[in-house]
UniProtKB/TrEMBL annotation, chain A:
Major place of residence: membrane
Cytoplasm is among the record's keywords: no
Subcellular location(s) of the protein: Cell membrane
Entry keyword set: Amino-acid transport, Cell membrane, Membrane, Signal, Transmembrane, Transmembrane helix, Transport
Family: Belongs to the binding-protein-dependent transport system permease family. LivHM subfamily.
Pfam families: BPD_transp_2
NCBIfam families: urea_trans_UrtB
Ranges annotated as spanning the membrane: 243-270, 302-322, 334-352, 385-409, 430-449, 469-493, 500-518
Name this polypeptide is given: Urea ABC transporter permease subunit UrtB
TrEMBL record, chain B:
Stored InterPro entries: ABC_urea-bd_UrtA, Peripla_BP_I
Assigned keywords, A-Z: Signal
SUPFAM superfamilies: Periplasmic binding protein-like I
Pfam families: Peripla_BP_5 (PF13433)
Gene: urtA
Organism of derivation: Ancylobacter crimeensis
Lineage, uppermost ranks: Bacteria, Pseudomonadati, Pseudomonadota, Alphaproteobacteria, Hyphomicrobiales
Protein known as: Urea ABC transporter substrate-binding protein
CDD domains from the UniProt entry: PBP1_FmdD-like (cd06355)
Signal peptide residues on this chain, from the entry's feature table: 1-37
Gene3D superfamilies named in the record: 3.40.50.2300
Classification via PANTHER family: ALIPHATIC AMIDASE EXPRESSION-REGULATING PROTEIN, PTHR47628
Record flagged with keyword Nucleotide-binding: no
Length: 535, 439
């Protein structure tokens, strides 16, 4: 009886081995089987097996999984890669698959856990990729995953690498593994500390702060001194980074306020509808992008450039209409102007809400405005950089218009002495309309830039109107340079305060500072001197 | 002299004439209304259609109108057609109370569907108590409240925030050890973060591993805060952001995350106020993998949801119009009210309030929403990852339905409190002192 049972067990074991052999042929096949179970945990494991399987097909599988092109049949336990042209490849053999029932196939799903595993696996697999950019990304992925299994591949790659940037990244990745590897000799680990400290960034700091507790004392002291020096240099970079953020915030304030510097600063009109001009400019950008998407998607990268003049003309025209129909009857009556323009702002908001709906509209970023680059440890996003450049250009263009053109001369003449200008034959009515139109048009151009960083919704303008007045009053009414300096100093001050006081308190503190400043110098930073003050 | 007197006199005479004419017109309208009211049941819709909250609330107004339309096609309720009275409180909190009073006393509505922000709900509460009417509140909120006249069909913190944090602590969620609690500076994020902080500490998370950050409404410059989050997250422990950032501030926040290259695989952000509607304004490609916790997603594949979306598109004549969680909560609330009214054959507030607990109506995700004695409902919890098409891919769902808990078990002041309007007839019964009336 017992013998029979033993025999049966033996037979069963043999059977199991025989039956499961085709599926158990190696780590690569094991990995594929893991992709058919609809479990994130299994997919994660499968990726780990794949990375070390050494199978040349592994790279394609990982890429397909990342793009959602890896399909599986849950019943047959088969996995396929879908190519860009829609044809299927059998993942087990790498040969084109025929006669597959596509309706039974489901894509292997990815969540964050799987995506992290994909990054680590593709890092380990593409260390030898011919494209240096991919090798760099791979080295960084290994640095992040610190996967000790990738060390041999890393060392081979390191010995062959010629690109200095990639080489440095590979060395850091290797050092990250060595540092945490208790089997490595102490000297190697201290050398690893030096390599990591050389990178000097936040990741290096984190790595050195978390040296394993069982590391030799020599490694620990080396790490501690490296941490101190990195912290010191990062603190200095932090200040630089905050100043950059401040300039970037300042440029946004400048864009929003510079049109107001014309209508409020030069003409003396309290225009509460200024923010709505910014909002209209953003909606013009949205419509331009919609038109481009429908008629010529290839032009998308140029959409903002195309939107700028259109936004200027549209909002400028609306500005002229507002001036001709409402504001010209109210010159010299600031309270009535305030109420009337406040009413106009509500009308414009609700009109846009009715026309476009209350929800946000999507304005895409052209490719040259996405992403970031690093100078030292300063990370600079392209979007912000271009907005600073754009704000500078608008400022110079406006300054040039006021200084060098005939209309600019007439504007200055009218605002300084209306009667005298009229006696000289200047059509003051026309100049008023043009000035208001110019201020509104510039607000519209600001809207094009702000559509990149803020919501394109009917409420867009409201959030900028108070800040704009603050900038103009702080900088000195009637002076463009004052607006520039005012915007930049408010931006930088805000960003330097924020890390200490928090966003809410920082803003309050800034308001208090400006109020105190205005008490001391009621005419702002750059007060106009002489007779112009009376204007 | 004479002229001076005659002018106002004439004016006064004209004024009297106008007032009389106006009164006559009013009387005519007044006479017309009762005649019509006899064959309809009026319900109130109290959602902002202008101002900052219009972005979220307009959809809910449309939802109620859509549900009324559907119900009337089925013959209305108690054999009468339902008539929706829409008012616009314009994102102005005191105006909410005024408009609520107007709906109840002037329009004589049987029930009101409305409010989004907690402050608007708090503003209308005294009105509903004083005039004894019913409010259905369809938005996820901070809890710590249970009123006799209010039914909360949105999620309480234990139906949204706590499960989301649990998911992130699990292996699938990435075993997060370090937490950023980022929110807009008002009552919902502050209370939710207080609950979450207490909960995380009870799970052994240390003080230095929790960073709490508040920003003003409509905050648009996120550079410093996102850089801080990045720095906080690079300390070698897995980090996640729990976001209670509200409304418009989300778009620039997510844009900045994308710009600074923070991917969901590095630092995932789980949001409680970001749904399909909010994502409509952003390019979601850089956001793939960031999370949201809700009790409903448009992408959930059930026959009920499919039919609902189809009819919604038909009603709005817009095949791209999204659906979201507060819409489902409105749907549940509306159907629960209809079921309660049919049960007691009356729209009388007292009868309906007593009939509502125990009412079960199907939700859109294949489950059943039951109105509980604490005036909250049972809900499933879903966690979705943002996909590149602006929809959510559900990566986790609760095992069963989670009953809404009005008073959080993780706050010292509220863990002894219990709300039960059936047996205890009390919204804040203290289980230690055995008294109704709070802590």
């Amino acid at each position: 009886m017992r013998l029979a049972a033993a025999f049966l067990a033996f037979a069963l074991a043999v059977l199991t081995v025989v039956v499961s052999r085709p599926a158990m042929a190696g780590p690569y096949e094991d990995a594929l089987a893991k992709f058919t179970t609809e479990s994130y945990a299994d997919t994660d494991e499968g990726l780990g097996l794949l990375a070390t399987s050494g199978n040349p097909l592994a790279v394609d599988i990982v890429e397909a999984l990342a793009d959602g092109r890896l399909l599986f049949n849950a019943d047959a336990k088969t996995v396929y890669v879908k190519k860009a042209d829609g044809s299927l490849i059998d993942a087990a053999t790498g040969q084109p698959a025929t006669g597959v029932d596509e309706a039974a196939l489901k894509p292997v799903r990815a969540n964050n856990r799987v995506r992290r595993a994909i990054e680590a696996a593709s890092g380990a697999l593409s260390l030898m990729n011919p494209d240096p950019a991919k090798r760099l990304a791979a080295a960084q992925a290994v640095f992040k995953s610190r996967d000790a299994a990738a060390r041999p591949a890393l060392e081979t790659a390191l010995s062959r690498e010629s690109d200095p940037q990639v080489k440095a990244a590979l060395a850091s990745a290797r050092a990250a593994i060595v540092l945490n590897d208790s089997a490595s000799p102490e000297a190697d680990r201290i050398a690893a500390v030096d390599t990591i400290a050389g990178a000097g960034n936040q990741d290096a700091l984190a790595l050195l702060q978390n040296v394993p507790a069982d590391a030799p004392a020599g490694v620990k002291t080396a790490a501690a001194s490296a941490v101190a020096s990195i912290q010191h240099s990062l603190a200095i970079w932090d200040v630089a980074q905050n100043i950059w953020y401040g300039l970037s915030l300042g440029s946004v304030l400048l864009l929003a306020a510079i049109g107001l510097a014309i209508t409020f600063g030069v003409m003396g009109v309290i225009n509460m509808a200024h923010g709505e001009m910014v909002m209209l400019g953003a909606y013009v950008t949205f419509m331009v992008q919609e038109a481009i998407r429908t008629y010529d998607p290839g032009l998308f990268d140029a959409s903002l450039i195309i939107a700028i003049p259109i936004a200027f003309l549209v909002t400028g025209l609306i500005g002229v209409v507002i001036e001709r129909t409402v504001i010209r009857f109210l010159y010299g009556r600031p309270l009535e102007t305030l109420l009337a323009t406040w009413g106009i702002s509500l009308i414009l908001q609700q009109a846009i809400r009715t026309a476009f709906g209350p929800t946000n509209r999507e304005v895409g970023a052209p490719s040259w405005m996405s992403g970031a680059f690093e100078i030292g440890h300063l990370s600079i996003t392209y979007g912000r950089l271009w907005i600073i450049v754009f704000a500078g250009l608008v400022f110079l263009a406006l300054l040039g218009t006021l200084r060098l053109t005939r209309i600019g001369l007439e504007m200055r003449a009218v605002t300084q002495n209306r009667r005298m200008a009229a006696s000289m034959g200047i059509r003051t009515n026309w100049v008023d309309a043009m000035t208001f139109g110019l201020g509104s048009g510039i607000a519209g151009m600001a809207g094009v830039a702000l559509s990149q960083i803020d919501n394109v919704s009917p409420n867009l303008g409201q959030s900028y109107i108070i800040d704009s007045f603050l900038v103009v009053v702080f900088g000195g009414v009637g002076n463009l340079w004052g607006t520039l300096v005012g915007a930049m100093s408010l931006g930088v001050a805000n960003k330097l305060l924020e890390p200490y006081a928090g966003a809410v308190l920082g803003k309050i503190a800034l308001l208090v500072i400006v109020i105190l400043f205005i008490q001391k110098r009621p005419r702002g930073l750059f007060a106009l001197k002489g007779r112009a003050i009376e204007a | 002299m004479l002229k001076l007197f005659s002018e106002p006199g004439r004016f006064a005479g004209r004024l009297v004439g106008r007032v009389a004419a106006g009164a006559a017109a009013l009387a005519l309208i007044g006479a017309a209304v009762p005649a019509k009211a006899e064959d309809t049941i009026k319900i109130g819709v109290l959602h902002s259609l202008s101002g900052t909250m219009a972005i979220s609330e307009t959809t809910l107004k449309d939802t109620v109108l859509f549900l009324v339309d559907e119900q009337n096609k089925k013959g209305g309720v108690l054999g009468k057609k339902i008539e929706a009275v829409v008012v616009d409180p314009a994102s102005n909190w005191p105006l909410f109370a005024e408009k609520a009073r107007e709906l109840i006393t002037k329009d004589k509505v049987a029930v009101v569907f409305g409010c989004w922000t907690s402050v608007s709900r708090k503003s209308v509460l005294p009105v509903f108590k004083e005039l004894n009417s019913i409010l259905f509140y369809p938005v996820q909120y901070e809890g710590e409240e249970s009123e006799r006249n209010v039914f909360y069909t949105g999620a309480a913190p234990n139906q949204q925030a706590i499960p989301a944090v649990d998911y992130l602590m699990s292996k699938d969620g990435g075993e997060v050890k370090r937490w950023v609690l980022a929110g807009t500076d008002y009552v919902y994020p502050r209370t939710t973060n207080k609950i979450l902080e207490a909960y995380l500490k009870s799970k052994g998370v240390k003080d230095e591993d929790i960073m709490i950050n508040y920003t003003p409404f409509g905050h648009s410059d996120w550079q410093t805060i996102v850089a801080d989050i990045k720095k906080f997250g690079s300390a070698g422990k897995k980090t996640a952001v729990v976001s209670t950032i509200n409304g418009d501030a989300n778009v620039p926040f997510y844009k900045e995350l994308g710009n600074q290259g923070i991917k969901a695989t590095d630092i995932p952000v789980v949001a409680f106020s970001v749904g399909e509607e909010e994502l409509a304004g952003i390019d979601t490609k850089p956001l793939v993998g960031h999370l949201a916790a809700w009790n409903y997603f448009q992408s959930i594949d059930t026959p009920e949801n499919k039919a609902f979306i189809e009819k919604w598109h038909e009603y709005t004549k817009n095949p791209k119009r999204t659906t979201n969680d507060p819409m489902e909560a409105t749907y549940i609330g509306f159907n629960a009210w209809v079921a309660a009214v049919e049960k007691v054959k009356s729209t009388d507030a007292d009868k309906v309030i007593d009939a509502l607990p125990g009412i079960k109506v199907p939700n859109l995700t294949g489950g059943t929403a039951e109105v509980l004695p604490n005036h909250h409902i049972t809900k499933p919890v879903f966690i979705g990852e943002i996909e590149d098409n602006g929809q959510f891919d559900v990566v986790w769902k609760s095992k069963g339905l989670v009953p809404g808990d009005a008073w959080s078990d993780f706050l010292p002041g509220s863990k002894d409190l219990e709300a039960d309007w059936v047996k205890l007839k009390c919204g804040n019964f203290n289980t230690v002192t055995k008294k109704c009336g709070g802590a």
